[in-house]
Design brief:
Elements lengths: L1 H29 L18 H24 L5 E2 L3 E2 H24 L4 H25 E3 L6 E3 L2
Antiparallel strand pairs: 1-2, 3-4
Helix pairs in contact: 1-2, 1-4, 2-3, 3-4
């Protein structure tokens, strides 16, 4: 039951991150976010097109892929030995989110609370990935009552 609850939390948080990144990217390109272009002064970007594409495709796409993998991949599928693919995908997407926010703050400064909030969302993704990895790796053998490491 614990693994199921963690998996649900992983999928919900991953989808939250994906939807917000993709909607944010569209908002930057279409212009409904009303962020002044002067925000980009001192950055390598002349307009919001490249940052929006990176946000939508890299940040949003990785979180969406992680959500799909956590929701639909066979339970216990391993990659790189003991790492479960669903936990690894979420950890990578969380690292991408944290990295995105760190780079954004380094380039334009900490301008609004949403930046800090999505930094925390990225950290939450990493923590949930670790919890999912642990829950999948220490499954209880129902016949013997002993813990078995799933490889």
């Amino acid at each position: 039951m614990r693994e199921r609850n963690i998996r649900i939390a992983v999928v919900v948080v991953d989808l939250f991150a994906a939807v917000n990144a993709i909607v944010g990217a569209i908002g930057l390109v279409v212009g409904y976010m009303a962020i002044p272009r002067s925000t980009l002064s001192g950055t390598p970007f002349a307009d919001f097109t490249v940052p929006a594409l990176l946000l939508g495709i890299v940040v949003g796409g990785s979180a969406l892929a992680a959500a799909a993998i956590a929701a639909f991949s066979p339970r216990g599928s391993a990659l790189f030995g003991r790492w479960k693919i669903d936990a690894l995908a979420t950890a990578i997407a969380g690292c991408i989110m944290v990295g995105w926010m760190a780079i954004e703050v380094a380039l334009i400064g900490l301008a609004i609370w949403v930046q800090a909030a999505f930094f925390v969302v990225g950290l939450l993704m990493i923590v949930l990935a670790a919890l999912l990895q642990g829950a999948e790796s220490h499954q209880v053998d129902t016949h013997s009552g002993r813990h078995a490491h799933a490889a």
